[in-house]
């Protein structure tokens, strides 16, 4: 059994705690995580698709749905990478005890594997 499958309960608990802490005290709560990207997508589609008439390909038809879909995929990838890279340092500092424990655990794993070989 792989590592994530063995620790599903822990991953679920940490995820719930992180989401609850992030949206605590906001008016719309978790709904912000859906509303914000949709508003951004609508604004960018209007500005770049309608006002500036940007197209991904010179010979492409002027379909706003295709433009919005490609833009949405790009925004999702950008948002995911920005979130992961932006929050990783603070999460490591917040949970330093887990990082130190993992480092010791990895030493044990590598020595066990060397003995097995």
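^ structure tokens above, recovered residues below v
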């Amino acid at each position: 059994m792989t590592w994530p499958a063995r620790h599903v309960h822990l991953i679920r608990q940490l995820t719930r705690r992180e989401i609850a802490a992030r949206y605590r005290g906001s008016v719309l709560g978790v709904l912000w995580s859906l509303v914000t990207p949709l508003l951004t997508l609508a604004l960018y589609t209007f500005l770049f698709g309608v006002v500036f008439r940007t197209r991904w390909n010179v010979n492409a038809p002027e379909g706003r749905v295709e433009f919005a879909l490609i833009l949405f995929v790009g925004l999702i990838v950008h948002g995911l990478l920005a979130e992961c890279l932006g929050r990783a340092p603070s999460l490591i500092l917040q949970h330093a005890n887990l990082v130190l424990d993992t480092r010791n655990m990895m030493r044990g794993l590598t020595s066990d594997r060397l003995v097995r070989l």
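The mean pLDDT is 81.
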